[in-house]
Specification:
heterotrimer; A alpha/beta; B alpha/beta; C alpha+beta; A: alpha/beta; Rossmann fold; globular; B: alpha/beta; 4-stranded mixed sheet; two-stranded parallel ribbon; 2 helices; about 15% helix
């Protein structure tokens, strides 16, 4: 029984955002926008998180950290890239210490537009990510069932190092 | 915004930095910022000091091979500015009180390598281009 | 940082990494904390996770367009960053902005200070585990953000500062209605401030923690609430830039120099911001809100200094007479506060480190640029 889309836990990492999107992410979690009504809880522990919210662009210092957090998250997982910087580097794309969007380092499932992204669109992104989680969970279950039928060892639920 | 007192800039000889800074400190000024501007012929350093609402700066030019003395012996808090300038401009600063060894921004592995991304002193190759880390 | 210590192996301090991804910090900041048992004996900060190098971007952008980048130095003090850059460029051009623009700038500055300090209060409450206070402050903050959206057009990135004035001109009626709409927020904040300042659990976490003396704070270059909480009267708004020369306000001062004093300063400043906004709206002059700016900035340089929520910020621009400025530099308040923060951490216990970091209200995005 899949209930993951009804209580996705979030983890947030600020790659090299200007703070604009970060405080909007926080605004989503507080009373007026209140992501908790979708069952979301923010956690600081990647091993308990289902949805990874990333703001800002990637540079050579934070790319390994981003990858590390992503790898520690159990399957299924979804990544939401928030704001123009997380898509392409945004207004800073030409800066020397900006390597590009989040997708250069980890696979992204949902892009949230805006500079800074508005809380409404961030909420929309989180809800979509929850639906993607559901799909991924279904696909994972099918794969495991198939593997059992064929007598193979079932693929692990928890992926150690995604590629 | 034409505040006279915030624009006072005294040009000094490079060797006079430490004694002049020492004198300012005795007069109750504190360090508020260090600014570096790079040009092909060398770097221009401005040390700004504040007392009350007034601000004044000491300025001198450093040639590409010059070693600039650290003022951390007078103002310990200068370590952050000096480390930053060394990382970003590739300027040589002697005896910084708290030496981070090029780890403030850690852009050493960035596109420009040696001189630091803000440095224009060496004109041997193309300048930094975004997105190539 | 720590000079060579001759302690025996067993007594050697242990190094605890703190950050960069830490539940307390919305932004990545890394510290190597040197601990002797529970006591912090040294802290070596490592920054660079958010460094973008945006000061160099000024060479690639038109000087008037660069305001967009300057605003994004930091999304919390975005308007003040945009405005500070504009003031520096206006100094270079030798123009004075129209009166209404000066007053509107002051209005938005104070709106931003109020939302920044409230944001801080929420985050600090979250840092020491008072979640309901966090939620309640952020609810009050949303009312301020609504006013920002209505008057300037943006929630966090206001986008209303331009070289030569401001780009939005809310009517006097709108401004008056906004002040009316802020009343419930002010009432809420009064109640929440009482909790922040008087609740036993909060006081237990903040009083006497992270003390820094007046002399040390001044010496190490601390600015803003960090300096004022140690009893040093220093507020760049006294220079009277924008419309600050025409409104009355008292500098908030505390003497204890601990986390509690820093909290008290910010809480006083929230109310002060509302009072300045009221005065600005009451005195709002009529007229245009921007000057047409033509041509290139002349060869020259200019400093501009503003008081941000976190303290004094210094902008520097240098022009070579072309469309692109030669150099832009910003010395942000958190950059100036780092040495004092490291000093305040010395001798604190490990559990107090997040609180101390939070009470300087660090803005890493500003610091690294």
């Amino acid at each position: 029984m899949s209930s993951i889309e009804r209580s996705p836990w979030l983890i947030h990492y600020d790659a090299s955002s200007c703070n604009g999107c970060d405080i909007e992410v926080l605004a989503c979690l507080t009373p007026v926008y209140d992501a908790e009504r979708f069952g979301c809880i923010v956690t600081g522990d990647p091993k308990q998180a289902d949805i990874f919210l990333v703001t800002g662009s990637v540079n050579h210092l934070n790319a390994p950290i981003l990858k590390n957090i992503y790898d520690q998250m159990p399957e299924p997982k979804a990544v939401v890239a928030i704001g123009a910087c997380a898509y392409s580097g945004g207004v800073f794309a030409e800066c020397y210490n900006v390597a590009g969007g989040v997708a250069t380092t980890i696979p992204v499932d949902v892009y949230v537009p805006g500079c800074a992204a508005k809380p409404e669109s961030i909420l929309d992104g989180v809800v979509r990510a929850a639906m993607i989680l559901k799909e991924k969970e279904k696909a994972g279950r099918k794969a495991r069932a198939l593997a059992r039928k064929e007598g193979r060892r079932s693929p692990k639920r928890r992926a150690g190092g995604a590629t | 915004m034409t505040e006279k007192e915030i624009q006072t800039i005294d040009e000094i000889e490079p060797g006079r930095l430490l004694p002049e800074t020492d004198a300012l400190r005795s007069a109750g000024w504190r360090l508020v910022q260090v600014l570096c501007i790079s040009s092909p012929g060398g770097s221009e350093l401005s040390y700004s000091f504040g007392r009350g609402l007034a601000m004044k700066s000491l300025r001198f030019r450093a040639l590409p091979d010059d070693e600039v003395p650290s003022i951390t012996s007078i103002y310990p808090a200068a370590f952050l500015y000096e480390n930053e300038i060394r990382d970003l401009f590739g300027l040589r600063i002697e005896r910084i009180g708290a030496d981070w060894l090029g780890k403030v921004y850690d852009v050493a592995s960035g596109p420009t390598g040696g001189g630091g991304p803000f440095s224009k002193v060496t004109i041997t190759g193309p300048r930094s281009e975004g997105g190539t880390i | 940082m720590s000079s060579g210590h001759e302690a025996r192996e067993a007594n050697a301090p242990s190094v605890i990494p703190f950050g960069p991804q830490h539940p307390v910090l919305p932004e990545p900041l890394h510290f190597d904390l040197l601990l002797q048992d529970e006591k912090v004996v040294g802290a070596v900060p490592q920054i660079g996770y958010i460094h973008r190098g945006l000061e160099l971007l000024v060479e690639k952008r038109d000087y008037a367009d660069y305001v967009h980048v300057a605003e994004r130095i930091c999304g919390i003090c975005s308007f003040m960053h945009g405005m500070g850059y504009c003031e520096a460029v206006e100094g270079l051009l030798g123009v004075a902005v129209p009166d209404r623009a000066r007053f509107l700038r002051t209005f938005w500055c104070e709106l931003e200070r109020a939302h920044s300090h409230l944001m801080w209060m929420g985050l600090a409450a979250d840092a020491f585990g008072f979640e309901s206070l966090f939620m309640a402050t952020w609810r009050a903050r949303e009312l301020i953000i609504d006013v920002a959206e209505e008057t300037a057009g943006g929630r966090v990135i206001f986008g209303s500062a331009i070289v030569g004035g401001v780009s939005k001109d809310p009517s006097d009626e709108t401004l008056m209605r906004c002040m009316e709409a802020l009343k419930p927020a002010r009432d809420d904040i009064k109640k929440l401030s009482r909790v922040m300042l008087q609740d036993a659990t909060v006081r237990h976490r903040l009083e006497g923690v992270g003390v820094i003396s007046k002399e040390k704070a001044y010496e190490l270059g601390a600015v803003g609430p960090m300096l004022r909480a140690s009893g040093y009267d220093f507020d760049i708004r006294r220079r009277g830039y924008a419309a600050y020369g025409e409104v009355g306000f008292e500098t908030a001062l505390e003497t204890a120099g601990d986390c509690m004093a820093r909290a008290a300063i910010r809480i006083k400043e929230i109310e002060q911001s509302f009072s300045i906004m009221e005065q600005v709206v009451a005195k709002m002059p009529a007229g245009p809100v921007s000057l047409p700016i033509k041509g290139m900035p002349p060869v020259g340089e200019c400093f501009a200094r503003l008081e941000q929520p976190r303290g004094e910020v210094i902008y520097y621009v240098k022009s070579n007479g072309s469309r692109n400025l030669e150099r832009f530099r910003v010395r942000t308040p958190t950059f100036a506060n780092v040495p004092a923060m490291v000093e305040a951490m010395r001798g604190a216990s490990l559990a107090d480190v997040p609180t101390i970091i939070l009470t300087i209200d660090p803005c890493i995005s500003c610091t690294e640029r």
